[in-house]
Amino acid sequence: MTSVIDERATEAPAAPSRLLPPAGPGRPPDRLDDHLRRWGPAAGLDDPRGSAAAGLIDAVAAAGLRGRGGGGFPTAAKLRAVAGAGGRRAPVVVVNAAESEPASAKDRALMTGAPHLVLDGAQLAAAAIGARRITVAVHRGDPAADSLAAAVHERAARWPAAAPVEIAQLPRRYVASQETALVRWLSGGEARPTVAPPRPSERGVGKHPALVQNAETLADLALIGRFGPTWFRSVGTPDEPGTRLFTVSGAVADPGVYELAGGARGAEVLARAGGGPGGVQAVLVGGYGGRWVSTDGFRAAPLTTGRGPGTVALGAGVVIALPPDGCGVRETARLARWLADQSAGQCGPCAFGLPAISAQLTALAAGWLDRGGVATLERWAGQIRGRGACAHPDGVTQLVTSALTVFAAEVDQHVTGRCSARPEAPPVCPLPTGDEAEPWR
Ligand SMILES: Cc1cc2nc3c(=O)[nH]c(=O)nc-3n(C[C@H](O)[C@H](O)[C@H](O)COP(=O)(O)O)c2cc1C
Ligand code: SF4
Question: Domains in the chain and their CATH numbers?
Answer without folding.
Answer: 32-232 (3.40.50.11540), 328-415 (1.20.1440.230)
